[in-house]
Amino acid sequence: MSAQAEPAPAPRLVKLNLTLAQELGLDPAALDSPAGAAIFAGNVLPEGALPLAQAYAGHQFGGFVPQLGDGRALLLGEVIDRHGQRRDIQLKGSGRTAFSRGGDGKAALGPVLREYLLGEAMHGLGIPTTRALAAVTTGAPVFRERPLPGAVLTRIASSHLRVGTFQFFAARGDPAKVRQLADYAIARHYPVALLAPNPYLAFLEAVRDRQAELIARWMHVGFIHGVMNTDNMAISGETIDYGPCAFLDRYHAQTVFSSIDRQGRYAYGQQPSIARWNLARFAETLLPLIHEDQPQAIELATAALDHFTDRYDAAWINGMRTKLGLLGAPQTTDLALANDFLQALEDQQVDFTLAFRHLALAAQGNEEPIRALFQHPAPYDRWAAGWLARLMEQSAQAMNAVNPVYIARNHQVELALSAATENQDFAPFEKLLTVLAAPFTERPGLAEYAQPAPQGNAGYQTFCGT
Ligand code: AMP
Ligand code: MG
């Protein structure tokens, strides 16, 4: 549906992603200006843009909502980037649309900077994600529990097609539209599916595999999305819609940070099964395309979904092998080694990120740092006896290439956001972005970014607060 931004009274560019602008074939110097701020606030349309708000439906915390849609986002258009990839440019927080329901269509500066930081952190970790191109303040307050500075995020995605986009047309009983959408998504993201005997089944399988891979990558770095509703699952396999997301500090599989997730539906350890559940909702929309005979369609789709778990398990253990330095031919004992280590971390609430980073030191003969993370190192010692025997010369190096030393730690994110929103001090935000751009490379002077919160993070909560 076509839509317009609400004019911002005093747009100010607070951050422009210069390297991403270049990658998109845009002119960073021209955008780094009041004229750029006017574009990123939605006040001025780039030439040729026909902005629109996209319709979608979705299961939110398990309950189906037949119409959600871009209630505060505007798709400006697409560009072909330097690698020949088509990318969407979307404003988030630019005002009401036909899908706003009771909302104001706005975004506050804190959540905009949060999405910027977390998305760029994921990109730095090499995990598929939407990205932030720019953040502007609008000069107008948004009203939440209290007035907050209004802002707009410019987001880049390889597309904004969601599981919920398919659900929207399927729920309206419009299989022709679902087919049109599927054809479009296949052409844009999975063209090889066209070569398969059943392209729509191949499409489902391809999305399944991308999601299995993606969720495994989240688990490897301790990322908790926080709202894995079907409208927040991208068909492209990119991480999308950074709301109350956060990285684990102390390892516990049932960790939930989101204040709205009271049942723990989207807890860290639930993410693989929720992804599979979401894919089942996706598969349902494709049934009429997969086979004209419904029982046969269901059988084919179910068989495809049944492979989610083995795809996920394979991606997970592969990644865990590298995280643990278990190089060479895979061994059947690797799975137990990985699970036992996590159990030991969970039992003693050890910091997930530090633990893997310190293991690389142990692999080089210095076991003191990892042992010091455990209040009672005996369980670690027992585990390490088997682990050390499995290591190779190159283990430590391989481990450090996949185990980040710097993640977007909750307390650092909060510090950066509060300095920006309360004191207009963007230095901590800029610094954190720089740290997170190279998360695997330990650098002098950045020790505080590698440490858990000094007083711990018990009770830390994140909010949707959009
Ligand atoms: P989210 O929880 O951010 O994934 O959003 C769920 C739905 O609520 C989407 O349809 C959003 O567009 C809509 N939404 C969230 N915040 C606002 C807002 N401030 N104004 C209008 N719609 C909103
Ligand atoms: Mg969303």
Describe the protein's architecture and organization.
With 466 residues, this protein is of the alpha+beta class. Helices cover 44% and strands 12% of the residues. The chain has 16 helices and 10 strands. The protein has helices at residues 18-23, 28-31, 34-40, 109-124, 163-171, 175-189, 199-221, 271-290, 294-324, 334-347, 352-363, 368-373, 378-388, 395-400, 410-423, 427-437; strands at residues 12-16, 58-60, 63-65, 73-80, 86-92, 107-108, 131-143, 147-157, 223-224, 246-247. A hairpin with a 3-residue loop joins β7 and β8. The two termini are 22 Å apart. 48% of the residues are buried. Bound molecules: adenosine monophosphate and magnesium ion (MG). Adenosine monophosphate is lined by residues 68-72, 99-100, 103-106, 227, 231-232, 241, 243, 464, 466.
State the gist of this model.
This protein is α+β, with helices and mostly antiparallel strands and 466 residues long. The protein has helices at residues 18-23, 28-31, 34-40, 109-124, 163-171, 175-189, 199-221, 271-290, 294-324, 334-347, 352-363, 368-373, 378-388, 395-400, 410-423, 427-437; strands spanning 12-16, 58-60, 63-65, 73-80, 86-92, 107-108, 131-143, 147-157, 223-224, 246-247.
How many strands appear in the DSSP assignment? Answer: 10
Outline type: globular
Major beta-sheet overview = 6 strands, antiparallel
Helical amount: 40-55%
Kindly report the average pLDDT value: 97
* Rg from alpha-carbon coordinates: 23 Å
Q: What is the H-and-E element order? A: EHHHEEEEEHEEHHHEEHHHHHHHHH
- The residue ranges in which pLDDT falls below 50 over 5 or more consecutive positions are none
Strand content: 5-15%
Tell me which ligands are bound: adenosine monophosphate, magnesium ion
